[in-house]
User: Fold this.
Amino acid sequence: NALSTMFAAINPLTGALPESGPPLSQQGSDTYHAWTLIGTHNYYLYSGDDAWLQIVWANYTKAVGFLEGKVDSSGLMNVTGLRDWARLGGGGHNSEGNALLYQVLVTATDLATHMNASDLASAWSANATALKKRYNEVFWLPSSGMYRDNDTTTLCPQDANSMAVLFNLTTTPEQASSVSEGLTRNWNDLGPVAPELPDTISPFISGLEVSDWNKFGGAAKYS
Assistant:
């Protein structure tokens, strides 16, 4: 019902999805937009609800197109919908936003395959491959062994690095392990402090890091 509500409130001209349900139904967040599309795949993956997917499909494809339309000549999405989870500096060629776009394209490819939309599946798959290559060219910071926040900084955020491992944006197991270990540098006795929001521990983003942590051996690795 939550997903259906979001798709029902889509901007019919632009394809923008709201970042929240009624009564606000406000727009202006590229990242929340992406999470709704990722959540659509998650719901279908566990429900197999073909009838529901048919109902939202036209709006879903329009919403994917909204994000793809923000990819500029750099090969990266230019994040202009700045409302986010409270992080600082999320605009422009931002690694968090582009990690989410990558996952949108990967999951959209899978949904298009289920819908027998072979042309869309091929296009989205090709765009995902191109974005992954560009992501690593622009954001990988060898000196830190992590991904940087955007194309003008050396700050390595918790969100984009957690997403890079979780969404398989890394290109080798060694690179993924380097990111996972690098994230531990932000740990204290209470949890990981997010460099992109100083003096703050985010349960939301930390939940993504926990998924990475378990992926690489959890307590056994870091004990």
Summary: The first helix runs from residue 2 to 8. The beta strands are 140-141, 146-147. The mean pLDDT is 94.
